[in-house]
Amino acid sequence: MMSSMQHATTDDLLDVETFAKPAQQQRFAAAMEQIAATRTPGTPVRVYVSAAPRTMASPKWDSWLAQIAAELPAGVEITHHRHVFGDGRPYDWGGFVEELDGLVVVGKQKRAGSRVYLLGPVARLELRSLIAQKPVLLYGHNLGLIPVIDCRSQVLRPEGTPRLKLIAPKRWKKDTATLSAALNALDPAVPGVVEEQHEHLAHPFTHPH
C-alpha cells in the first residue's frame, strides 16, 4: 500500500495529487472492492485509531476523533488504545488485530499546516500489520482522511528505533478513487456478496521497511 520510498526534498516533488502509480491505485481499488463484496450486509465494522499517548493527551483529541468519525461511513465502530488496552491491560496487538477492519493513523504534524506526519515505532508496526490487507488511512489535520497508498513514505531510524514519515500530496483531493474505494470497504451498509473466497486477498501493496 505504500507507494514510494523515495526521499522527497523539494516542494516540486510534492506537487502531485497522489504518490501512487496508476497500477497501484487500480490494485488497491480492486482489493477494497473485494473486501466490500465479501462482507455480509450488517456485519459490524471496527476501525482502530492509532495515536501516540501525547496525541491522545491533546485537548484537541476528542475533536480529532469526531472529525474522523464524521468522515468514516455511518455505523463504523471507532476504537483506540484507551478502549482496548487501557486500565493496565497488556498491549496484545497480535491478539487484537484480527478483529479490525481498518486503521486510521494520527501522526505528529511536523508543524502547523505541514503535510508531513511522523509516526512512532508502535504506530509504524500497527500500520505494517494491516497495510497489505485492510483499508489504512492517514488523518491529515487540515486534509481529512487520506489512503496511505497516496502518501509518500520514508523510514527514519533515530538511534536504531525505526519510525515512519508520511507526506501527503500537495494537490490531494477528496474525490479520488482510492478514498472512495477505502470508505466503501468500511461501509457496513454496502450490500455484500456472500461467497466463499477461494484465494487469500492478494498483497498488491509494498510494505514499509
Summary tags:
209 residues; alpha/beta; 5-stranded mixed beta sheet; 4-stranded antiparallel beta sheet; 30% helix; disordered N terminus; disordered C terminus
Portion of residues within helices? 25-40%
Rounded radius of gyration (Å): 16 Å
Cross-sheet strand order for the largest sheet: 2-1-3-6-7
Describe the main β-sheet briefly.
Answer: 5 strands, mixed
Helix/strand-derived category reads alpha/beta
The shape, in one word, is globular
Question: Termini, distance in Å?
Answer: 12 Å
Note the beta-strand portion: 15-25%
Mean pLDDT over the residues: 85
Instruction: Tell how many strands the DSSP assignment holds.
Output: 9
Condensed summary:
The protein is α/β, with parallel strands linked by helices and 209 residues long.
Task: Explain what this protein looks like in three dimensions.
The chain has about 210 residues and is α/β, with parallel strands linked by helices. The protein is built from eight helices and nine strands.
